[in-house]
Design a protein that fits this description.
Blueprint lengths: L2 H11 L4 H13 L8 E5 L5 H9 L2 E6 L2 H13 L5 E4 L11 E6 L10 H14 E12 L1 H7 L4 E5 L3 E9 L5 E11 L5 E11 L3 H11 L3 E6 L12 E7 L1
Parallel strand pairs: 1-2, 1-4, 2-3, 4-5
Antiparallel strand pairs: 5-11, 6-7, 7-8, 8-9, 10-11
């Protein structure tokens, strides 16, 4: 494998895989599947694990991501399972070259990686434009409780025989924002360890801000849930789910 493939494999290995089934289950409760309307676009699909879950659940899936390297891994995964999934390299801030979809998802707090609420609003408008009539858009974001109370000072370290992983999170300057500093040490074929460093900046907003941006994009109904369940957010909810319909 190339260094990037090795890195992505390690990155996936420290991800809680049970979350993919939870995202799938939440989607199935809010995105009814039928033979005529099952075209789903997954934004920020990464290495394709969630796209595969969606495909196996019965959706006609297209995955979009900025990273060609991630998409190469996603394609290998889907081919290994003999699944017909389209993977497209692209930016969720410009979906003008894509066809219409019945539903769009953006999970794993990918919206939180956009730099400001202007970009968030732009993405909402792009999604609205490519949705069929009565189409649905589902995404999740960190709650303000998560960014303000849970994440700052968070530290996770893992040591295995062929890799080590360090993850530390700090509060950032903008409201409800954090910086994740990730360091991987991955053993290569010579037995030496190669270091990979990444810095992830995330920012969230109040629920009202997301509601207003969705309304400005044109969505007519908006429902908000928390923590993978069909329940309303509470003060200590960590992840908010938005279900917006065109």
């Amino acid at each position: 494998m190339t260094n990037y493939e090795t890195f992505a494999t390690i990155y996936d290995s420290v991800m809680d895989e049970s979350l993919y089934q939870k995202w799938t289950d939440f989607s199935l409760r809010h995105l009814p599947i039928n033979n005529d309307r099952n075209k789903l676009l997954e934004l920020a699909c990464g290495t394709g694990i969630q796209s595969i879950y969606f495909s196996e659940a019965g959706f006609d899936v297209t995955g979009l991501d900025l990273s060609a390297e991630m998409l190469a891994i996603a394609k290998k995964r889907s081919h290994a399972k003999n699944l017909d999934i389209s993977f497209v390299e692209g930016d969720m801030r410009d979906l003008s070259q894509l066809p219409k979809f019945d539903m769009v998802t953006c999970y794993s707090d990918s919206i939180c990686y956009l730099k400001d609420e202007v970009e968030v609003g732009d993405v909402f408008k792009e999604v609205y434009a490519i949705l069929e009539s009565d189409g649905a858009f589902i995404f999740d974001v960190h709650s303000t409780f998560q960014t303000d109370q849970v994440f700052p000072g968070y530290s996770y370290h893992e040591n295995a025989e062929d890799f080590a992983f360090l993850w530390d999170t700090y509060a950032d300057e903008p409201p409800h924002s954090v910086v994740h500093e990730l360091t991987f040490f991955v053993k290569d074929k010579t037995g030496s360890f190669k270091r990979f460093d990444e810095v992830h900046e995330e920012r969230t907003y109040e629920i009202l801000t997301y509601d207003v941006l969705l309304e400005q994009a044109g969505f007519k109904t908006i429902e908000v849930y928390a923590d993978f369940e069909d329940k309303k957010p509470e003060a200590t909810s960590k992840r908010w789910f938005f279900v917006a319909r065109k």
